[in-house]
């Protein structure tokens, strides 16, 4: 992992912590440089073993820059709660965050299809068995990138627990958790009423975003 200087006690050198932070997110922020200027965009992504898979349109500027060899940084941030101390200065937040840096690899042919399948299994588990396969024109319009997770190109950092300050008489201190869960499915207006909710969707209703 890369060394963290600000609040190093919150850093984790455990690879399993990095994996967990990445796996708890469906989207990442992709940062790169295009024509000498910073370019930052949110993208859907998923970890597949020791790599992160990102996909998008072949017309997407950030992905094109990454595909051309511009260094990238992928970051995730989970806000788990607000921390109320006896002063605004000492108030904080509980969170989990991770950053992976490097140069992405463009995947093509069977490698791209396998990566898209892995990404689908991560984001929409079970859906591949319910729908048709990719069309050639769809694959031609899709750019698939892989960013390798090495031993020294990532950071993972988190805060949890109550305020660091001691309680003050008459001032409430503590944590206000923030939770995200899947809600109730909303069918396409054109769906016949006889078509039930897909199993891949139904099994996730009410569950956490993992």
Detailed description of the structure:
- The protein is of the alpha+beta class and 210 residues long.
- The protein has a domain at 8-79 and 94-161: Electron Transport, Fmn-binding Protein, Chain A (Pnp Oxidase, Chain A, Roll).
- The protein has helices at residues 15-23, 61-67, 109-123, 136-140, 199-202, and strands at 27-34, 37-48, 51-57, 72-84, 92-102, 105-107, 142-148, 154-159, 174-177.
- Strands 1, 2, 3, 4, 5, 6, 7, 8 and 9 form a 9-stranded antiparallel sheet that branches.
- The two termini are 24 Å apart.
Question: Would you spell out the secondary-structure blueprint of this structure?
Answer:
Blueprint: H1 15-23, E1 27-34, E2 37-48, E3 51-57, H2 61-67, E4 72-84, E5 92-102, E6 105-107, H3 109-123, H4 136-140, E7 142-148, E8 154-159, E9 174-177, H5 199-202
Antiparallel strand pairs: 1-2, 1-4, 2-3, 3-7, 4-5, 4-9, 5-8, 6-7
CATH topology of the domain at 8-79 and 94-161: Pnp Oxidase, Chain A
Order of helices and strands: HEEEHEEEHHEEEH
Residue-averaged pLDDT: 92
Structural class: alpha+beta
Q: Radius of gyration over alpha carbons?
A: 20 Å
The portion of residues assigned to helices is 10-25%
